[in-house]
Specification:
Structural class: alpha+beta
Number of helices: 14
Largest sheet: 5 strands, antiparallel
Strand content: 15-25%
Radius of gyration: 21 Å
């Protein structure tokens, strides 16, 4: 029997711990939800606040410091926070795409350096980054190796070399200036194909059921690579096929959670770039089509969103006096009441760290259409 669109929505929410907050520890939660978008330092914290019962941000501080959760350039060539045990396979699955995105880019090729030049720098970079290093320190190293300043060499290497972002302090462990640290020596993850299979399997555990197009969108890997991985996993009985609402072929892991389509979905205040907004080619799983361009901008910014009954219903921002909620549709008194409870808890959560989180993105609110706006006090 085909899965309905609402069943797929609830599957995503259930696997991403958005039907109810879980009592898992922080490291276990990161492993459970697979990858947290970390382009903005606050976002992994707010993502976990939405998912973990009694979330203490100090626990994520500690996980970053102890490197049980690591932040690195990975999926879609953007920063993600992932479980340390997942990082080797995820990086090996993505490295070919990460390298190509930079080493075939005119910004690198115009430097006069070759791909072999870049690859030859990697061992020296990793040795140097055995302890945290700043961008300036690394560019000094590369200048010494190349005989001249080559900022585009570092621009490429920072994307595909096995590097973690080292915590630098501030309210969310990382500031605006990044510091880099070589990834630890790793066990052999096997062939690149095996690494892609591992990433596909982990993706389906956290975001399935999903299509080839969905996973390709999530990672920006080419569809033939994805298809090959799914075929291998199917032959090993690690994934099976399902039918989507429109007859599309979907894939899932055996035993993947499929909550009932009438499962209640409580209101949530999702962070910028929350993974559920970007994990699918079919963004309609979570974002009504009319709202997509309101929350996902052409430059890549993804605004903090209101989630009502499992779907994006508006956006929010922290302001003086509480949380300003902008609804794109008429909401019931019950929905507003649920959002007010979440907002009060969020204001309390932000108070000790960054009460006006995401303030530098405030200009986007001037582009929003007329809508119902409420100040939800803390």
């Amino acid at each position: 029997m085909p899965l309905t669109a609402r069943q797929l929505n609830r599957a995503t929410l259930g696997r991403q711990l958005l039907l109810q907050r879980d009592a898992l520890d922080v490291v276990g939660t990161v492993q459970r939800v697979v990858a947290l978008q970390a382009q903005e330092p606050a976002s992994p914290y707010l993502a976990l606040w939405n998912r973990v019962a009694d979330f203490d941000p100090a626990d994520l501080d500690a996980a970053f410091a102890e490197r049980t959760v690591v932040k690195a350039s990975l999926i879609r060539i953007t920063l993600h926070a992932v479980h340390a045990e997942d990082y080797p396979a995820f990086h090996d699955a993505m490295v070919s795409s990460l390298r190509a995105s930079r080493l075939h880019d005119r910004r690198f090729t115009s430097s006069g350096l070759s791909i072999a030049d870049a690859d030859a720098l990697v061992p020296h970079l990793l040795e140097f980054a055995g302890r945290p290093r700043t961008k300036a320190q690394i560019e000094d190293l590369l200048e010494a190796r190349l005989g001249q300043r080559q900022p585009r060499a570092w621009w490429a290497l920072r994307t595909f070399a096995p590097l973690h972002h080292a915590p630098t302090g501030g309210p969310w462990s990382f500031g605006t200036s990044s510091t880099y640290l070589a990834a630890p020596a790793r066990p052999d993850t096997g062939s690149p194909e095996a690494a892609v299979e591992r990433l596909v399997q982990r993706y389906l555990e956290g975001f399935g059921p999903a299509s080839v197009a969905d996973f390709a969108q999530f990672t920006m890997l080419r569809r033939p690579v994805v298809t090959h991985a799914l075929r291998a996993l199917a032959e090993a009985d690690k994934v099976h096929e399902l039918e989507g609402a429109d007859g599309a072929t979907l894939f899932d892991v055996p035993g993947g959670r499929l909550p009932a389509e009438d499962s209640p979905a409580p209101p949530r205040l999702l962070p910028m770039w929350d993974s559920i907004l970007l994990a699918y080619s079919d963004r309609g799983r979570v974002i009504p089509p009319d709202y997509r361009r309101l929350v996902i901008h052409q430059n890549g910014d993804v605004l903090p969103t209101l989630l009502v009954d499992g779907y994006v219903a508006g956006v929010w921002r922290a302001v003086e006096g509480g949380i300003e909620a902008t609804a794109f549709q008429r909401l019931s008194d019950e929905a507003w009441g649920g959002l007010a409870v979440e907002a009060a808890a969020l204001v309390a959560f932000l108070a000790g760290r960054d009460p006006r989180v995401y303030r530098r993105y405030a200009h986007w609110w001037s582009t929003l259409p007329k809508a119902e706006v409420r100040l939800l006090p803390g």
